[in-house]
Specification:
alpha/beta; Rossmann fold; seven-stranded mixed beta sheet
């Protein structure tokens, strides 16, 4: 765990004590951070105790293991959050691996093998391999006739499964991407890393983020975080910043509020309690003025969304020292930057599914939307590093890249079955800090406090 934490801190600019220069995220290298490790854990026992193993594998029989020391890397990210949040003002101690099962614990979800616990994602066999199809939105099913170029009768999943066996993975992924469908090839972590490098034109990669430093900025005693994100990863990141002492304002459009409001209320509360809610037209000048006042912005839209709104994150980072946390499926740059992704299909794209199961059997879904909580945790670590270091940055956090970094070094062999007698603990969730805010409940108060009451 400590080694994983050190790797993350190094990628954010930390260095040996006595080096007074600054790193890529603005982390002052003279700051002494004490990594208080609680000891080594057996990787298999830790996975079994996390709640994630109970969500991985066939519905019958014990849960499935994952290769390597995945939980140690997630604990490392949680340790980074703890030590940096303590520097900011209020230490946030987390059981990192337990974050993987929080939604399932609240919603009563369970493992389903090649089907995600939530039911929206399925692994289907194509002519030359497996694909993760995540049809999480009603409109996704409406796109199937255009995808397949035929009428769809009966169970759409059955029709889709019968159709994909006649095409290659590359053909299907490209076709789905044109229609905005979240579909990904099931690949190993090594293959995912190579694809990411090729898509972004890099010779090497490995960190869960790409950090572009910005201007220095002295944040408020209580930093202002503007949370434009939705669903899971972004709201988790902003929630952790709130626990560290930041003032988090959740900003939503009346035309498209956070879709998590339609899900289990307890899960929405877990990710949004303590935030204040502002509801404004994103096309108004108010949004831009609000972002200029932020110390941190957390958002989960594809790059072209902000471009269409006339907002340039790079300018805010460069000129005002804002820390801009961008959480996307495949990153802000490269040939895949406009592809849609959610937690389960991004996990498959990053290598989390290919190594689960028997050597001659199908791959399996890893936990519940694995990429979402993993990315939210890592995004919070990067944001805290920027706040502690006193320098803004554009932090590009791709769901797939986070998964690949967590599964780095796991090899290419399937994890197989757990040894007899190993008991998988059920998923669990943290205690909620209260209720999430009603849509727009604090709009007037927040805008008035920031001097934006008359901005149109």
């Amino acid at each position: 765990m400590t080694r994983a934490a050190c790797e993350l801190l190094t990628s954010l600019g930390a260095a040996a004590e006595g080096d007074a220069s600054e790193g890529s995220a603005g982390t002052k290298r003279s700051t002494r951070l004490v990594l208080d490790d609680d000891g080594d854990r057996d990787p298999l026992d830790d996975w079994a105790g996390s709640g994630a193993m109970a969500l991985t594998g066939e519905p019958e029989g014990p849960g499935r293991p994952v290769p390597g020391d995945v939980t140690a890397r997630i604990r490392g990210a949680a340790l980074v959050v703890a030590v940096l949040s303590e520097q900011l003002g209020s230490r946030v101690d987390l059981d990192g691996p337990a974050l993987l099962g929080e939604r399932a614990a609240i919603a009563g979800l369970s493992r389903q093998g090649t089907v995600s616990p939530g039911g929206s994602c399925r692994l289907l066999a194509a002519r030359d391999g497996w694909l993760a199809w995540n049809l999480a939105r009603r409109d996704d099913f409406l796109m199937l006739p255009a995808l397949m170029q035929r009428e769809v009768h009966g169970d759409p999943w059955d029709a889709l499964a019968a159709w994909v066996v006649g095409a290659t993975r590359d053909e299907l992924v490209e076709r789905a991407a044109l229609l905005g469908l979240p579909v990904a090839a099931v690949v190993t972590p090594e293959e995912a890393a190579a694809e990411d490098r090729a898509a972004r034109g890099l010779e090497r990669s490995g960190a869960p983020w790409v950090v572009t430093p910005g201007a220095q900025r002295r944040p408020r005693a209580r930093p202002l975080v503007v949370d434009l994100s939705a669903l899971w990863a972004g709201p988790l990141c902003a929630a952790l910043l709130g626990e560290a002492g930041a003032d988090v304002v959740k900003v939503e459009s009346p035309a498209r509020p956070d879709g998590a409001r339609r899900g289990p209320r307890a899960f929405f509360d877990l990710l949004n309690a303590g935030k204040r809610s502002v509801c404004i037209d994103f096309r108004s000048a108010t949004l831009g003025a609000l972002l200029e006042r932020a110390d941190v912005v957390v958002e989960s839209a594809r790059p072209r969304v902000m471009e269409n709104l006339g907002i340039d994150p790079e300018v805010l980072v460069r000129d005002r020292g804002v820390t801009w946390i961008s959480i996307t499926g495949y990153g802000r740059t490269g040939s895949w930057c406009d592809r849609v992704a959610f937690g389960d299909d991004a996990a498959a794209a990053g290598g989390a599914c290919a190594l689960i199961g028997d050597e001659c059997g199908p791959p399996m879904i890893c936990a519940d939307a694995f990429a979402d909580p993993a990315a939210g945790l890592h995004a919070a670590a990067a944001a805290l590093a920027c706040l502690v270091g006193g320098r803004g940055a554009l932090v590009d956090v791709a769901l797939r890249r986070v998964v690949t970094s967590v599964f780095a070094g796991t090899g290419s062999r399937r994890a197989g079955r757990a040894p007899p007698g190993l008991v998988a603990a059920p998923p669990r969730a943290r205690t909620r800090r209260g209720a999430g805010p009603g849509l727009g409940a604090d709009t007037g108060t927040v805008l008035a406090q920031l001097g934006l009451g008359r901005v149109e």
